[in-house]
Amino acid sequence: MLVYSTALPFLKEGRIKALSVSDSARVPQLPDVRRIGEEDGMNGVSLPLWQALFAKAGTPGSVVLSVEKAMLDALAQPEVKSKLMEAGVTAAPMSGRDLPGFIKPQAALYREIVQSARITMD
Questions:
Q1: Domains in the chain and their CATH numbers?
Q2: What Gene3D superfamilies does the record tag this protein with (predicted)?
């Protein structure tokens, strides 16, 4: 299993073949590759890989809002979107207000996976 941006050069060279994607939607760059939730026995499964920008607790709200605005403004620019897409990254920006609502179910999903598989640090 590879992150799409890591797999991209190998896919372009034909050295590997994409069998499935783990996101909740098909990857725009690979429209014919099914997502795991479309496979038999995997209905509804989605394991999106995501990144977020965090600030240390206690960071002044004005600083947080300034960085958030700069990030959202940059991600809204067509040339930035294009460069990210070329690199295999699909930007899905959200505000800091919305991020906890996204993270909470993600944490629960991975907690369930770790517990049910009895994964330990050993």
A1: 1-49 (3.40.190.10)
A2: Bordetella uptake gene, domain 1 (3.40.190.150), Periplasmic binding protein-like II (3.40.190.10)
